[in-house]
Specification:
heterodimer; A: mainly alpha; Four Helix Bundle (Hemerythrin (Met), subunit A); B: five-stranded parallel β-sheet; elongated
């Protein structure tokens, strides 16, 4: 099984992604392998816990953009909602959804890490 | 140089490499791709690289965000020539409308919808390219009109000179002497400081100093001997008549500044420092400095040229006559500048150069 197929198994919209990457599977895989670094650089949880809503929003926003462009659809949908909750300053619900998202995200990261 | 011959890069500004790579992949066959991770890097590139034909700009970035980049591109006016596309997850309408009002041309929303992006961006780049080219053509034409206007004024002045039995070269020499004289006066005397473009406009205006002679009868203008008192009184009127003619010139031919200089020069180029000139008997710095400069230039050129009523004086005699006050009193500072540059003028005339400002 390839990395792309593994992503599809977790709910990524592969056709959408490959259209975006001009049918270039290798480039898509290369960018998928950069995803863990983006996650590490965007500690939404840390900022939510410390009450820095602004930073939490901007980090969730970054993840929303990247998961969108990588067509990691389940994560994209969640981060979209998290950004909205942060903007409404609904920290409680944002934290709740984030915890759920982190578990899901972990599954993606584990699959990707096999290919690094 | 035509715009489309030099511009062929696209600048992609996003803090996320993944986002940049997708856009780069999309356009790499068509354009050179430049990338920046934040607004500060982006501005450095925009300011140093004039090959950029479009910018794709993320809004939320560290160091300097996209809005600050837009503000700066507005300040420098670059936003008018380079289309800026906002890359965004389109979830903050307030921010987006702010970006539009700062001149962003379109929104590229994340996740990217590839089927539209390329055509939309290419269409707009084409429109901007076309507009930039048109603007260049318009600028060239404006410059051309300005050159034609200048020539028309020169021709007008030359016509008067021909009637005065001169060759038409006198007005061109007056222009050259006046601008050189004013450059020297302006450099040495802060109170008479003039910007270079103003000095050039004064040179243009100087050409018209005798335009009022069109109103003087031939029997006086072309009289081969000295004028009677009555004839001289009529001759003096050419200063005021010149102003009447100027006031009828359409505004398109002459901008306000040239008009003001021309008016002062026509009216006051026969005034003298001690108040003994005409028509108004102005004293000292009541006479505008540009009129004072043309007065000296006119006298020097008249003395050293043959006229219907006299032969040409040699240069040294003419210089002495001016310094001795034989042609009326001049401002000592103007005389000092005249004496400093007169050798150059004489050398140019000896080399048979016309002494227009183009030389």
């Amino acid at each position: 099984m390839s990395l792309i197929e593994e992503m599809e198994e977790l709910g990524a919209d592969i056709n959408d992604a490959l259209t975006r990457f001009m049918g270039n599977n290798a480039l898509y895989e290369k960018m998928l392998k950069k995803f863990p670094k983006v996650v590490a650089d965007s500690p939404v949880q840390k900022y939510l816990e410390s009450g820095d809503i602004e930073e939490a929003t901007s980090n969730a926003h970054a993840l929303k953009g990247v998961t969108g462009n990588l067509s990691l659809t389940p994560l994209y949908n969640n981060y979209t909602e998290i950004v909205n909750l942060c903007r409404e300053e609904n920290v409680e619900k944002a934290t709740e959804l984030l915890n759920e998202t982190l578990k899901l995200q972990q599954m993606f990261l584990e699959r990707i890490s096999k290919y690094l | 140089m035509r715009v489309n011959e030099v511009k062929n890069s696209i600048l992609i500004v996003d803090d996320q490499e993944i986002n940049r790579v997708i856009l780069a992949e999309l356009f790499k066959d068509q354009y050179d791709i430049l990338q920046a991770e934040n607004g500060e890097e982006a501005l450095k590139i925009v300011n140093s690289d004039n090959s950029i034909i479009a910018v794709m700009l993320d809004l939320v970035m560290p160091v300097m965000d996209g809005m600050s980049v837009l503000i700066e591109l507005n300040r420098t006016g670059k936003i008018y020539h380079i289309p800026v596309f906002i890359i965004t997850a389109a979830d903050n309408m307030q921010l987006l409308s702010g970006a539009y009002s700062l001149g962003a041309v379109d929104i590229i929303s994340k996740p990217f919808r590839m089927c539209f992006i390329k055509s939309r961006i290419n269409n707009i780049i084409e429109l901007y390219r076309h507009r930039n080219e048109l603007e260049e053509v318009v600028n060239e034409n404006v410059a051309k009109i300005e050159r034609i206007n200048n020539k028309m004024v020169e021709v007008l002045a030359a016509l008067i000179e021909f009637r005065d039995c001169e060759s038409g070269e006198h007005v061109k020499r007056i222009r050259g002497i006046t601008t050189r004289l004013l450059e020297k006066i302006s450099a040495d005397n802060p109170e008479y400081y003039l910007e270079k473009p103003s000095i050039e406009k004064i040179g243009m205006a100087a050409v018209l100093h005798d335009v009022g002679k069109i109103a003087i009868p031939d029997r006086i203008l072309q009289k081969p001997g000295p004028l009677t008192k009555e004839e001289f009184e009529i001759m003096k009127i050419h200063t005021v008549k010149g102003c009447d003619i100027l006031s009828q010139m359409p505004e398109d031919i002459m901008d306000e500044e040239v008009y003001r200089y021309s008016y002062d020069i026509c009216r006051h180029h026969h005034e003298r420092w001690n108040g003994e000139g005409y028509p108004d008997g102005l004293i000292g710095d009541e006479i505008p400095i540009w009129s004072q400069a043309v007065a000296v230039a006119d006298v020097f050129d008249a003395l050293t040229s043959p006229r219907v009523y006299k032969a040409a004086f040699d240069y040294d005699t003419a210089i002495d006559m001016i310094n001795d006050g034989d042609c009326g009193a001049f401002n000592p500072k103007v005389l000092k500048a005249f004496n400093a540059i007169v050798d150059d003028i004489v050398n140019l005339r000896k080399a048979n150069k016309i002494l227009s400002v183009d030389e």
